[in-house]
Amino acid sequence: MKLVSKRIIGVLLVFVMVIALAGCGDKTEEAAEVTEVGTVEETETNAEATVAETGDEATIAFICADMGNPSQAYAASLFETYAKDYNLKAVVFNAAGDAQLEASSVQQAIAQGVSAIYVNPNDINAILPALQEAKDAGIIVGMFSSDVPVGSEDLRDFFVGVDDNQAGVEAANAFIANFPDGAKIVEVGGQAGHDAQIKRHGAFEPVISNSNIEVLDSQACDQWSTDQALAIMDDFIVKYGDDIEGVFCHWDGGLTGVIQALDAAGMDTKGMFLVGIDGSQSGVQQVMDGTQDLTIGQDFMEMSKKSLELTRAVLDGETVTTQNFIPLMLVTPETIDDFTFPEW
Protein backbone atom coordinates (compact mmCIF):
# COMPACT_ATOMS: atom_id res chain seq x y z
CA MET A 1 0.00 0.00 0.00
CA LYS A 2 1.38 3.36 -0.95
CA LEU A 3 1.85 5.66 2.02
CA VAL A 4 0.99 9.32 2.03
CA SER A 5 4.16 11.47 2.31
CA LYS A 6 5.28 11.77 5.91
CA ARG A 7 5.92 15.48 5.34
CA ILE A 8 2.31 15.88 4.26
CA ILE A 9 1.19 13.97 7.33
CA GLY A 10 3.22 16.26 9.55
CA VAL A 11 1.55 19.29 7.99
CA LEU A 12 -1.89 17.68 8.30
CA LEU A 13 -1.32 16.91 11.98
CA VAL A 14 -0.31 20.45 12.75
CA PHE A 15 -3.24 21.84 10.72
CA VAL A 16 -5.75 19.57 12.46
CA MET A 17 -4.46 20.48 15.90
CA VAL A 18 -4.52 24.21 15.17
CA ILE A 19 -8.16 24.01 14.05
CA ALA A 20 -9.12 21.83 17.04
CA LEU A 21 -7.48 24.17 19.47
CA ALA A 22 -8.75 27.45 18.09
CA GLY A 23 -9.99 29.59 20.95
CA CYS A 24 -7.93 27.81 23.63
CA GLY A 25 -6.09 29.79 26.28
CA ASP A 26 -2.43 30.76 26.35
CA LYS A 27 0.10 28.07 25.47
CA THR A 28 3.44 27.40 27.11
CA GLU A 29 6.72 29.02 26.12
CA GLU A 30 7.03 26.72 23.06
CA ALA A 31 3.88 28.33 21.71
CA ALA A 32 3.95 27.19 18.08
CA GLU A 33 5.16 23.68 18.83
CA VAL A 34 3.49 22.73 22.10
CA THR A 35 -0.06 21.59 21.60
CA GLU A 36 -2.37 22.08 24.56
CA VAL A 37 -4.77 19.17 24.45
CA GLY A 38 -5.89 18.94 28.07
CA THR A 39 -8.38 20.92 30.08
CA VAL A 40 -8.37 21.70 33.77
CA GLU A 41 -11.16 20.38 35.94
CA GLU A 42 -12.84 23.09 38.00
CA THR A 43 -13.20 20.98 41.15
CA GLU A 44 -11.02 22.33 43.94
CA THR A 45 -9.78 21.11 47.29
CA ASN A 46 -8.68 22.86 50.46
CA ALA A 47 -6.53 20.82 52.84
CA GLU A 48 -5.84 23.73 55.20
CA ALA A 49 -6.79 21.71 58.25
CA THR A 50 -3.93 19.25 57.69
CA VAL A 51 -1.13 21.56 56.59
CA ALA A 52 1.95 22.73 58.36
CA GLU A 53 2.49 26.31 59.43
CA THR A 54 2.79 28.68 56.46
CA GLY A 55 6.21 28.61 54.85
CA ASP A 56 7.67 25.87 57.06
CA GLU A 57 9.99 23.39 55.37
CA ALA A 58 8.22 20.07 54.87
CA THR A 59 9.40 16.61 53.88
CA ILE A 60 7.72 15.02 50.89
CA ALA A 61 7.95 11.53 49.41
CA PHE A 62 8.01 10.62 45.73
CA ILE A 63 6.74 7.03 45.45
CA CYS A 64 8.24 5.87 42.17
CA ALA A 65 6.56 2.93 40.46
CA ASP A 66 9.87 1.73 39.03
CA MET A 67 13.19 3.57 38.94
CA GLY A 68 14.11 1.28 36.06
CA ASN A 69 11.69 3.33 33.97
CA PRO A 70 13.73 6.30 32.63
CA SER A 71 10.82 8.75 32.81
CA GLN A 72 10.19 7.99 36.47
CA ALA A 73 13.86 8.06 37.42
CA TYR A 74 14.11 11.44 35.70
CA ALA A 75 11.01 12.71 37.52
CA ALA A 76 12.44 11.54 40.86
CA SER A 77 15.63 13.50 40.19
CA LEU A 78 13.56 16.59 39.38
CA PHE A 79 11.67 16.34 42.67
CA GLU A 80 14.95 16.09 44.55
CA THR A 81 16.46 19.01 42.63
CA TYR A 82 13.57 21.48 42.73
CA ALA A 83 11.94 20.70 46.09
CA LYS A 84 14.10 23.29 47.82
CA ASP A 85 12.68 26.02 45.58
CA TYR A 86 9.35 25.44 47.34
CA ASN A 87 10.86 25.04 50.82
CA LEU A 88 10.41 21.29 50.62
CA LYS A 89 12.74 18.32 51.11
CA ALA A 90 12.21 15.25 48.93
CA VAL A 91 12.83 11.58 49.67
CA VAL A 92 12.35 8.89 47.03
CA PHE A 93 10.94 5.36 47.34
CA ASN A 94 11.40 2.80 44.55
CA ALA A 95 8.57 0.27 44.19
CA ALA A 96 10.56 -1.59 41.48
CA GLY A 97 7.44 -2.37 39.46
CA ASP A 98 5.75 -4.18 42.36
CA ALA A 99 2.25 -3.05 43.35
CA GLN A 100 2.54 -4.51 46.87
CA LEU A 101 5.93 -2.89 47.44
CA GLU A 102 4.47 0.41 46.30
CA ALA A 103 1.67 0.16 48.87
CA SER A 104 4.19 -0.62 51.61
CA SER A 105 6.30 2.34 50.43
CA VAL A 106 3.32 4.60 51.05
CA GLN A 107 2.98 3.10 54.52
CA GLN A 108 6.69 3.71 55.19
CA ALA A 109 6.32 7.32 54.11
CA ILE A 110 3.37 7.71 56.50
CA ALA A 111 5.44 6.23 59.33
CA GLN A 112 8.23 8.69 58.58
CA GLY A 113 5.81 11.56 59.05
CA VAL A 114 6.06 13.14 55.61
CA SER A 115 3.72 16.01 54.79
CA ALA A 116 2.94 14.92 51.23
CA ILE A 117 3.33 11.95 48.91
CA TYR A 118 3.31 11.73 45.13
CA VAL A 119 2.38 8.38 43.66
CA ASN A 120 2.79 6.95 40.17
CA PRO A 121 0.93 3.68 40.73
CA ASN A 122 1.89 0.33 39.26
CA ASP A 123 -1.76 -0.70 39.65
CA ILE A 124 -4.36 2.02 40.04
CA ASN A 125 -6.73 -0.20 42.02
CA ALA A 126 -4.21 -1.96 44.26
CA ILE A 127 -2.85 1.37 45.55
CA LEU A 128 -6.21 2.69 46.80
CA PRO A 129 -6.12 1.26 50.38
CA ALA A 130 -2.67 2.80 50.92
CA LEU A 131 -3.89 6.16 49.64
CA GLN A 132 -6.78 5.95 52.10
CA GLU A 133 -4.28 5.38 54.91
CA ALA A 134 -2.35 8.46 53.83
CA LYS A 135 -5.49 10.59 53.73
CA ASP A 136 -6.53 9.29 57.17
CA ALA A 137 -3.10 10.36 58.45
CA GLY A 138 -3.66 13.89 57.16
CA ILE A 139 -1.03 13.62 54.42
CA ILE A 140 -1.38 15.50 51.15
CA VAL A 141 -1.76 12.99 48.30
CA GLY A 142 -0.66 13.94 44.80
CA MET A 143 -1.05 11.57 41.87
CA PHE A 144 1.81 11.97 39.42
CA SER A 145 1.50 11.12 35.71
CA SER A 146 -1.20 8.49 36.40
CA ASP A 147 -4.45 9.15 38.23
CA VAL A 148 -6.78 7.13 40.44
CA PRO A 149 -9.80 5.35 38.92
CA VAL A 150 -12.95 7.35 38.28
CA GLY A 151 -14.92 7.55 41.52
CA SER A 152 -11.84 7.48 43.76
CA GLU A 153 -10.83 11.12 43.33
CA ASP A 154 -11.53 11.81 47.01
CA LEU A 155 -8.40 9.80 47.86
CA ARG A 156 -6.08 12.39 46.34
CA ASP A 157 -5.69 16.16 46.70
CA PHE A 158 -4.60 16.68 43.11
CA PHE A 159 -3.40 15.01 39.93
CA VAL A 160 -0.69 16.34 37.62
CA GLY A 161 0.10 14.73 34.28
CA VAL A 162 -0.85 14.54 30.64
CA ASP A 163 -4.27 13.56 29.37
CA ASP A 164 -3.59 9.95 28.38
CA ASN A 165 -7.03 9.70 26.80
CA GLN A 166 -6.05 12.51 24.45
CA ALA A 167 -2.73 10.79 23.74
CA GLY A 168 -4.62 7.72 22.55
CA VAL A 169 -6.88 9.86 20.36
CA GLU A 170 -3.88 11.66 18.84
CA ALA A 171 -2.25 8.32 18.02
CA ALA A 172 -5.40 7.07 16.30
CA ASN A 173 -5.80 10.28 14.34
CA ALA A 174 -2.21 10.04 13.14
CA PHE A 175 -2.84 6.59 11.65
CA ILE A 176 -6.08 7.73 10.06
CA ALA A 177 -4.33 10.72 8.48
CA ASN A 178 -1.44 8.60 7.21
CA PHE A 179 -3.63 5.83 5.78
CA PRO A 180 -6.66 7.48 4.13
CA ASP A 181 -7.28 4.29 2.14
CA GLY A 182 -7.02 2.02 5.17
CA ALA A 183 -4.28 -0.23 6.55
CA LYS A 184 -3.52 -3.09 8.90
CA ILE A 185 -1.71 -2.27 12.14
CA VAL A 186 -0.88 -3.75 15.55
CA GLU A 187 -0.84 -2.26 19.05
CA VAL A 188 1.79 -2.97 21.72
CA GLY A 189 0.34 -1.81 25.02
CA GLY A 190 2.10 -0.54 28.14
CA GLN A 191 2.05 -2.14 31.58
CA ALA A 192 -1.30 -3.89 32.08
CA GLY A 193 -3.34 -2.25 34.84
CA HIS A 194 -1.38 0.99 34.71
CA ASP A 195 -3.53 4.10 34.32
CA ALA A 196 -1.62 5.24 31.22
CA GLN A 197 -2.00 1.85 29.51
CA ILE A 198 -5.71 1.70 30.26
CA LYS A 199 -6.44 5.21 28.98
CA ARG A 200 -4.15 5.14 25.95
CA HIS A 201 -5.71 1.91 24.71
CA GLY A 202 -9.22 2.85 25.80
CA ALA A 203 -9.17 6.12 23.85
CA PHE A 204 -7.30 4.72 20.83
CA GLU A 205 -9.61 1.77 20.23
CA PRO A 206 -12.96 3.50 19.59
CA VAL A 207 -11.44 6.12 17.28
CA ILE A 208 -9.50 3.61 15.19
CA SER A 209 -12.42 1.13 15.10
CA ASN A 210 -14.58 3.78 13.45
CA SER A 211 -12.08 4.14 10.61
CA ASN A 212 -11.05 1.89 7.73
CA ILE A 213 -7.92 0.81 9.60
CA GLU A 214 -7.85 -2.77 10.91
CA VAL A 215 -6.07 -3.55 14.17
CA LEU A 216 -4.76 -7.07 13.63
CA ASP A 217 -3.81 -7.59 17.26
CA SER A 218 -3.27 -5.77 20.56
CA GLN A 219 -1.37 -6.97 23.61
CA ALA A 220 -0.20 -5.23 26.79
CA CYS A 221 3.06 -5.88 28.64
CA ASP A 222 3.55 -6.97 32.25
CA GLN A 223 6.00 -4.08 32.75
CA TRP A 224 7.13 -1.03 30.78
CA SER A 225 9.87 -3.27 29.38
CA THR A 226 11.64 -2.85 26.03
CA ASP A 227 12.37 -6.59 26.01
CA GLN A 228 8.70 -7.45 26.53
CA ALA A 229 7.67 -5.11 23.72
CA LEU A 230 10.24 -6.81 21.48
CA ALA A 231 8.87 -10.25 22.38
CA ILE A 232 5.29 -9.20 21.67
CA MET A 233 6.33 -7.73 18.32
CA ASP A 234 8.19 -10.95 17.48
CA ASP A 235 4.93 -12.85 17.99
CA PHE A 236 3.02 -10.36 15.85
CA ILE A 237 5.58 -10.75 13.04
CA VAL A 238 5.24 -14.54 13.14
CA LYS A 239 1.43 -14.27 13.03
CA TYR A 240 0.96 -11.46 10.52
CA GLY A 241 4.27 -10.88 8.73
CA ASP A 242 4.16 -8.39 5.89
CA ASP A 243 0.48 -7.62 6.52
CA ILE A 244 1.66 -5.26 9.28
CA GLU A 245 1.79 -1.71 7.93
CA GLY A 246 1.98 0.24 11.17
CA VAL A 247 2.56 -0.09 14.91
CA PHE A 248 1.19 1.90 17.83
CA CYS A 249 3.31 1.36 20.94
CA HIS A 250 2.29 2.99 24.22
CA TRP A 251 5.80 4.25 25.00
CA ASP A 252 8.92 5.15 23.05
CA GLY A 253 11.18 2.71 24.88
CA GLY A 254 8.83 -0.09 23.89
CA LEU A 255 8.90 1.12 20.29
CA THR A 256 12.69 0.69 20.42
CA GLY A 257 12.03 -3.01 21.01
CA VAL A 258 9.47 -3.05 18.21
CA ILE A 259 12.01 -1.57 15.80
CA GLN A 260 14.61 -4.13 16.90
CA ALA A 261 12.15 -6.96 16.20
CA LEU A 262 11.30 -5.55 12.77
CA ASP A 263 14.98 -5.12 11.90
CA ALA A 264 15.76 -8.68 13.00
CA ALA A 265 12.97 -9.96 10.75
CA GLY A 266 14.34 -7.99 7.80
CA MET A 267 11.27 -5.76 7.62
CA ASP A 268 11.55 -2.14 6.45
CA THR A 269 10.77 0.11 9.41
CA LYS A 270 11.00 3.21 7.24
CA GLY A 271 8.26 1.79 5.05
CA MET A 272 5.92 1.49 8.04
CA PHE A 273 4.13 4.08 10.16
CA LEU A 274 5.32 3.87 13.77
CA VAL A 275 3.84 5.90 16.63
CA GLY A 276 4.97 6.06 20.26
CA ILE A 277 4.25 8.14 23.35
CA ASP A 278 6.61 9.90 25.80
CA GLY A 279 8.96 12.17 23.88
CA SER A 280 11.93 10.41 25.49
CA GLN A 281 15.50 10.40 24.20
CA SER A 282 14.90 7.11 22.41
CA GLY A 283 11.71 8.35 20.77
CA VAL A 284 13.12 11.69 19.66
CA GLN A 285 16.28 10.01 18.34
CA GLN A 286 14.17 7.50 16.42
CA VAL A 287 12.18 10.33 14.86
CA MET A 288 15.47 12.01 13.92
CA ASP A 289 16.71 8.74 12.40
CA GLY A 290 13.53 8.29 10.38
CA THR A 291 12.53 5.01 12.03
CA GLN A 292 9.70 6.53 14.09
CA ASP A 293 7.11 8.84 12.57
CA LEU A 294 5.58 10.44 15.65
CA THR A 295 6.24 10.64 19.37
CA ILE A 296 3.55 12.20 21.52
CA GLY A 297 5.67 13.91 24.15
CA GLN A 298 5.24 14.53 27.88
CA ASP A 299 6.87 17.40 29.77
CA PHE A 300 8.11 15.85 33.03
CA MET A 301 9.89 19.02 34.07
CA GLU A 302 6.61 20.94 34.04
CA MET A 303 4.77 18.05 35.73
CA SER A 304 7.28 17.92 38.57
CA LYS A 305 7.39 21.65 39.19
CA LYS A 306 3.60 21.89 39.05
CA SER A 307 3.29 19.11 41.64
CA LEU A 308 5.68 20.90 43.98
CA GLU A 309 3.92 24.22 43.43
CA LEU A 310 0.55 22.70 44.32
CA THR A 311 1.96 21.06 47.43
CA ARG A 312 3.38 24.33 48.71
CA ALA A 313 0.05 26.02 48.01
CA VAL A 314 -1.89 23.39 49.99
CA LEU A 315 0.63 23.55 52.83
CA ASP A 316 0.12 27.31 52.93
CA GLY A 317 -3.65 26.86 53.20
CA GLU A 318 -4.55 27.74 49.64
CA THR A 319 -7.26 26.11 47.54
CA VAL A 320 -5.90 24.39 44.42
CA THR A 321 -7.23 22.86 41.22
CA THR A 322 -7.48 19.10 41.63
CA GLN A 323 -6.93 17.94 38.05
CA ASN A 324 -4.04 19.51 36.15
CA PHE A 325 -3.26 18.41 32.60
CA ILE A 326 0.15 19.36 31.20
CA PRO A 327 0.11 19.92 27.40
CA LEU A 328 1.19 17.11 25.08
CA MET A 329 3.77 17.75 22.36
CA LEU A 330 3.57 16.26 18.86
CA VAL A 331 7.10 15.56 17.62
CA THR A 332 7.41 14.65 13.93
CA PRO A 333 10.29 14.85 11.42
CA GLU A 334 8.87 18.23 10.37
CA THR A 335 8.70 19.72 13.87
CA ILE A 336 11.61 18.04 15.63
CA ASP A 337 14.05 20.93 15.14
CA ASP A 338 11.75 23.11 17.25
CA PHE A 339 12.07 20.89 20.34
CA THR A 340 14.81 20.66 22.95
CA PHE A 341 16.35 17.19 23.08
CA PRO A 342 15.01 15.53 26.27
CA GLU A 343 17.18 14.71 29.28
CA TRP A 344 15.73 11.23 29.80
UniProtKB/TrEMBL annotation:
Task: Kindly state which keywords UniProt assigns to this record, in alphabetical order.
Answer: Signal
As for subcellular location, the record says: Cell envelope
The record's listing under Gene3D superfamilies reads: 3.40.50.2300
Care to name a GO molecular-function term for this sequence? carbohydrate binding
The entry's cellular-component GO terms read: cell envelope
Span-the-membrane segments of this chain are none
Q: Which family does it belong to?
A: Belongs to the bacterial solute-binding protein 2 family.
The molecule here is called Periplasmic binding protein domain-containing protein
